[in-house]
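Changelog note: in this version the structure field was regenerated for every chain. One regenerated record is shown below for reference.
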Amino acid sequence: MSTVSEQRQAVARAQRVVIKVGTRVLVQRSGRPDERRIGALVEQLAALRAAGRQVILVSSGAIGAGIEALRLPGRPRAVPELQMAAAVGQSRLMARYDRLFAARGCLAGQVLLTHDDLRHRQRHLNARNTMMTLLRHGIVPVVNENDVVAVDEIKLGDNDQLAALVTMLVDASLLVLLSSTDGLRAPLGPAGGRTRRVPYLARVSEQELALAWGKGSPLSTGGMATKLAAAQAVVDVGASAVIADGRRADTLLRLFRGDDVGTLIGTPAATPDGRPRGLASKKRWIAFFQRSQGTLVVDDGAARAIVERGKSLLPIGLRAIEGHFEAGAMVTVKTLAGRAIARGLVEYASAELAQIQGRRTAEIGQVLGARPMDEVIHRDNLVIGTGGATGTGGATGSNRACTTRWSLWGSRGRGSTGLAHALERRQERLARRDGRGARGATRRAARRQRARPRRRPRARAHWRAARSAGAQRRAHRCDDRRHPPGDRAAGPRRRAARASGAPGWPPDRPSCACRSG
């Protein structure tokens, strides 16, 4: 059995799975919910649940259902209007799921989350306990973002990110991203054109990210690039992901039979109880559920101690502080060269760190008047990231977060690294190339306005002239038998005479009253 086949069989044995379905799978082109596809999705989920698997559904479509109920012409642009559509559509979407699951003997429970819920430690644990209890009682959690109260969550790739976070939250071993394509597509040749499905990726690099397209529908908020970022995030914590076509009625059933469906990312490797191998729960929360609020720049000696020996960060190795934050905030640790090597929960506020940076631990009490902690970041609250000061990377597996990036959020505007930064750069390039945004739309609209009065009247004039000439030819009648309408035989006779070399050809055409007049 080949390695890929073995990995497909490992996917088929996954017991706790998170399945995310996108808006383009659930709605028609008009934006109305597609009852046939939703019914087929619920049918497959119920079959997986009947087979003993624990299934969590992360569903888009609330805003689409609200657009249908409100009879809006398209997806709104303003955030309050999006929240209005979500408020109207969320209950209708859940009612549809509840009815379809109940018809197949399953119970569904609604879970609304925001990123703030998952970032706050106590609320994070409460959400985990609730979802684990639902799973133990055989209930299918239907998860969506609480778009009614969230603002920055209604943006690119919101539910792709949410699905990855839910996968980490419940220690699922597999994330399935159902989209409108059958996986990542790669060109067959250097010239582009035809493409092929990529069946397997060990991990996502910038080369694969370059193959990703942007979102292809005004109703959706994600795209292939956000799905790749979400897939790599779960791979970083020891799980695996599959991107597959959700429009087919048997995609999930085939996937869990071990068939070659979609694009498998990562190497399925779970513990005997089915949980993914990777970071402990607290380390995972630090690495992926937080946004960085500042940056600590350390010298090369401190960087080596953190990365190679798994040590805490002490004030003597601190060289600079960027940003303003309080004690307990999440910060990124960088080298003097600007490379991010770790992130963790800081024990002191930025104003206090500015006073003790570069000093020995024994001097903290003298400078601040008290010494609550010896470390700036304790190693239990520190997660190692890419490489290290020397590039050798000797941190233990329990302390190492991932090999490409820290979290799904990145650190926009603060030099984020790895895949998250690559995704941002690619989106910016696409925006510049395609002229997206308000300025691009205005320019395209102006071009259409200028072009319309030039092209269309000219085309109508040509069409009218051709129709008039044809009508004149059809209306021509002549009583002179030597000059029939159109003189159809003149062409063949002329060509034959010219070929034979007869002199004096062509003869003078006979005149008639209608032509001479």
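Spot check on this record: The mean pLDDT is 76. DSSP finds 19 helices and 15 strands in the chain.
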